[in-house]
Amino acid sequence: MEVERVQAIASLSLTTDTIPAEFIRPEKEQPAITTFRGPVPEIPTIDLSDPDQENLVRSIANASKEWGIFQVVNHGVPTDVITKLQAVGKEFFELPPEEKEVYAKIPGSQSIEGYGTQLQKDIDGKKPWVDHLFHKIWPPSTINYRFWPKNPPSYRDANEVYAKYIREVADKLFTSLSLGLGVEGHALKEGAGGEDIVYMLKINYYPPCPRPDLALGVVAHTDFSALTILVPNEVPGLQVLKDDHWIDAPYIPNAMIVHIGDQIEILSNGIYRSVLHRSTVDKGKARMSWPVFLEPPGEFVVGPLPQLVNEEDPPKYKAKKFKDYAYCKLNKLPQ
Ligand code: OGA
Ligand code: NI
């Protein structure tokens, strides 16, 4: 069966002021109604090059406890590396449909890798206004180049270079997050799979939408990764739920957005919180984002770090294989 891409629907909607009913969210989700417009506290921005290690650890730990999300600047990934990653991803999404379909997800496959569009509707029978491409970028033994676009030709190089830099950012974050819990610097990375942690890149492509007041890109969720490190394009759209209000994440040039995912919440026994977030879409411009999900290998068991659990602080989460966690989450089953 031919899958209908949101990009194709969007190009048909260009000259109209309407969108198909299946994209119109119920009122309790519509961005025009639910976005908080009052004065809001700002999502923390953290300078990763801060030479004061204690200060850095404290800021990262506080942001992860209170927000579960923060932006990082001076993260060590050169601007031109990010610009190239964005340019090749954009070029891919601007290819004619038949060229993108070569990379389509394989129907019936267990893997999420490939070019795709969410097929099943949400509980409300609604669809998100977004297409995506998923593929792994690290470790090398897990990469399936079948899902890496061959066009533009520099796609592979741009993604390999990015993978090299993003691992350094990840290591730095894992270390600070561990020290912020009062455990050894390597504890969280080890607890999430160590050198076997899988780096899954997703490119979100949110086409221009005639009714951004009614539609949503990705709907409210927490990431089931350990950490997510996201690069956006210049079109804002990420929102996070803070104190029961949906607030906008400002676009900060050259910053990367870090989400605490469910696995870090579990490892920290609830001290760090995975953040509920969603994305809105834009009337005139395509929004794009490049999250990298840092995931434990499927067979790897994740549970609260033993150092954080005692009689006063019993484990708040079950230890389970990551693949079982992911299965329950995707199928909306209790953990
Ligand atoms: C996601 C996500 C947000 C964004 O893909 O999991 O939350 O800003 N994306 O695109
Ligand atoms: Ni997310």
UniProtKB/TrEMBL annotation:
Gene Ontology biological-process annotations: flavonoid biosynthetic process; pigment biosynthetic process
MF annotations from Gene Ontology: dioxygenase activity; L-ascorbic acid binding; metal ion binding
InterPro entries listed in its UniProt record: DIOX_N (IPR026992), IPNS-like_FE2OG_OXY (IPR044861), IPNS-like_sf (IPR027443), Oxoglu/Fe-dep_dioxygenase_dom (IPR005123), Plant_2OG-oxidoreductases (IPR050295)
Superkingdom, natural source: Eukaryota
Cofactors, names only: L-ascorbate
PROSITE patterns: FE2OG_OXY (PS51471)
Pfam families assigned to the protein according to its UniProt record, in alphabetical order: 2OG-FeII_Oxy, DIOX_N
Keyword vocabulary terms for this entry: Dioxygenase, Flavonoid biosynthesis, Iron, Metal-binding, Oxidoreductase, Vitamin C
Family affiliation: Belongs to the iron/ascorbate-dependent oxidoreductase family.
Protein name: Fe2OG dioxygenase domain-containing protein
Species the sequence originates in: Quercus rubra (Northern red oak)
Lineage, top ranks: Eukaryota, Viridiplantae, Streptophyta, Embryophyta, Tracheophyta
